[in-house]
Give the backbone structure.
Amino acid sequence: MKEITSKKVKPSGLELVDRLVGVQRVTKVTKGGRAFGFTAIVVVGDEHGIGGYGLGKSKEVSEAVTKGIEDAKKNLYRFPIVKGSIPHEQDGKFGGARVFLRPASSGTGVIAGGAMRHVLESVGVHDVLAKSKGSSNPHNLVKATFMALHQLRDAKQVARTRGVEVSKVFNG
C-alpha cells in the first residue's frame, strides 16, 4: 500500500461546506415484511485544502445526512494545494473504482464527473483534470479520490523526506 502523507485536522474554528454526494434507499427483509432505511454519503471541506467524507445511516433521509456530516467532520485531512491545483499526477483506487488526477493550468476548472467533482471542490481544487475508470459507485469513487489526494506530496514534503533543500528538489 502507498504511503499516506496527509495530516488529520481538528474541525474547531473551520468554516466547513458540506456536499451531499448520494442517498440510497436500503431494504432489510424481515419475516414481518420489508424495513426501509437510507444511507447518505457526504463530503465536507473548507475549500482551502481541508476535506473529509462520512457515511450516515438512518430510517429518515434528513437524519442520515446529518449523521453523514457529523462523521465527515470527525475525519478531516489537510491536502497540498498548489495555486488552486494539485502538485502532481496521482492515481487512486478503492474497490472497483479507479481515479486519475492531473494538475491543470489556471482557469481550466474542475474537469471531473459526479462524486469526484464534489470531493475536489470541497477540498479546494479549482483547476484539475480527472478521470474515473472502472466502477461508478459513488461510495467507492469518493474513497478512491480521497486515496489519491492522501498520496499527494508538495515540494516541502519531498525535500524533508530526501533531507535536502527545496531548491534541490527541482534542480536534481
The mean pLDDT is 89. The radius of gyration is 18 Å. The first helix runs from residue 61 to 73. The beta strands are 7-9, 17-30, 33-45, 50-58, 76-78, 90-94, 97-103, 110-111, 128-134.
